[in-house]
Amino acid sequence: MTVDLNSLVNNILAGDRYFLAKLLTLIENDHPQGLDALNLLYPHSGKAHLVGITGAPGSGKSTLVNRLAGYLRNNLLNPTQDGEQYPVTVAIVAVDPSSPFSGGAILGDRIRMRDLAGDPGIFIRSMASRGALGGLAKATSSAVEVLDAAGFSFVLIETVGAGQAEVEIVRTAHTTVVISAPGLGDDVQAIKAGILEIADILVVNKSDLPGADNTLRILQSAISMGYPATQVLPSEDQKGIGTPQWIPPILSVVATTGEGIPDLAEAINGHRQYLDTSGEKIRREHTYMRSRMEQLLGDQLVARFLNDYAGDKFEKALKLVLEREIEPRRAVELLIQDKLS
Amino acid sequence: MTVDLNSLVNNILAGDRYFLAKLLTLIENDHPQGLDALNLLYPHSGKAHLVGITGAPGSGKSTLVNRLAGYLRNNLLNPTQDGEQYPVTVAIVAVDPSSPFSGGAILGDRIRMRDLAGDPGIFIRSMASRGALGGLAKATSSAVEVLDAAGFSFVLIETVGAGQAEVEIVRTAHTTVVISAPGLGDDVQAIKAGILEIADILVVNKSDLPGADNTLRILQSAISMGYPATQVLPSEDQKGIGTPQWIPPILSVVATTGEGIPDLAEAINGHRQYLDTSGEKIRREHTYMRSRMEQLLGDQLVARFLNDYAGDKFEKALKLVLEREIEPRRAVELLIQDKLS
What we know:
The structure is a homodimer. Chain A has helices at about 5-15, 15-30, 30-40, 60-75, 105-115, 135-150, 165-170, 190, 210-225, 260-280, 280-320, 330-335; strands spanning about 50-55, 90-95, 120-130, 155-160, 175-180, 200-205, 250. The longest helix of chain A is centred in the last third of the chain and has 43 residues, at about 280-320. The first copy, chain A, is built from twelve helices and seven strands. The first copy, chain A, is α/β, with parallel strands linked by helices. Chains A and B meet through helix 3, helix 5, helix 6, helix 7 and helix 8 of A and helix 3, helix 5, helix 6, helix 7 and helix 8 of B.
């Protein structure tokens, strides 16, 4: 890094994409200068609307995210500040838990670039897993904060898969969109995915394919189980604006043709208004940040504990556990209490 | 709980299924008596072979796990101790990150019970997520230790989905089986799943369906990228017994008819022998237990830190972060250094 911290930060605030990409790499690599820059940028964050988009592999997430980004960019204007209106800007963070060995992230980026290349108001970044579990979620949160501070109106956080790590990543978001598609195992497994409860908006993508009605029906019945007193057909009054409780609307989309994308954009804006007017936005930020800080606290306390005075004792405890002398949780208790005999 | 700790533990060691189920519930609910019992049982663990089985929703995992359990039970004998040979016993832990609202775990169990009911040598348990992220992985590790101590020859750990939380759960296992099936998005997405690198054995289930050849080819090319110098067709010499490096074999299975299940059982045994003879088993247990203990250490240090003297300061740090004054990681650093102004 030949550039100093202040010019890095100032260039990013001025909209420079080259320095933005550089900082995201520093953050992905957990470089200390990345954290320093993030710290300077952080006070500028908090304005973007963060949209998490998740769903099973094969549900057509990337295509849908590309379409949505293009639609938002071409059809939405930012609220005026200087009397003029500007088209919104959109950042896409594609979180990809693939190994370096599959090369998924790079390939994915190339495919996306072809679709959205040439628009300076759209910025795309893939975050790939680099070994440590949980490291990806942390780097993604920081990357989203940087993009928010850099002034993007929307940050779309796309995650591959539907596991709990993805759920964790999506928690960063204000609005979570869960994508299904016909033919991806619309049986018991589909409602098992454990992501319905985090969905603010449900999308049936590829809704022109056979079986789409069935997927729609399964989602409707799952939602009606979760919100038993309400009717669950996707209708206007269902988008939840001004209602005391948000009922996730279920939207049919064909991402490849763009059909249904305007409805999705509208539902996202509806949810954004709901968050603002209901106080739910503040609650969500509070809950998310508390859990994030507890996790960061855990990481730092462990590093200090091991580094300062308990490295050898930790090794001893580990040995006792591996020899089946003490159960792991008890061993850690004894370690902390300094009672390890 | 009307039974005392010692009789709970002794009954479980004697093979009582009722008390076993009771203890697993205590552990799932994070009840302190569960941990006490686990601590007494732990020295009896370490004998079972732990097999993790994961794959995308719709890949037919449950059917395959049921078939495999039945096959192992009917065809494998335990090494003699008293001169006699007994059929192996099998425990299945189905880890289900569904919400209480979908009821997936209960439904899944009922379907399974129908297939395997009546065999006292097979024990099935679903673990469902109860809110806290990461809690499920912890409860599952403890449940596996209990089942191991209870004397089961094999513990099959089945996870729904392919996210990083599933990867974490599967790390408990000695042998990891990753299941694919035709038609589940065999494109760029398939190799993105991020689980190939943890696979010891790859299975193409539903291999009688159209497209199975294509799935097989994709897996072969993914494996050949990871192990470039070797041939990757599934063949005898590929099962890795005695070879310096284990190359994951790719097996074709039709779980509904049982076709290919004997090969899978053989591959699992082959991998078990590889682990024992190569020293890899000790390395894996060491790596896994170190990361598990670091996580437990983090949980306990945070709880103590917040409880003992930093609760108010934590709230203050959280407030500063939410007001965008300080970046979360910096805030935690200042909190630990007691430098929060």
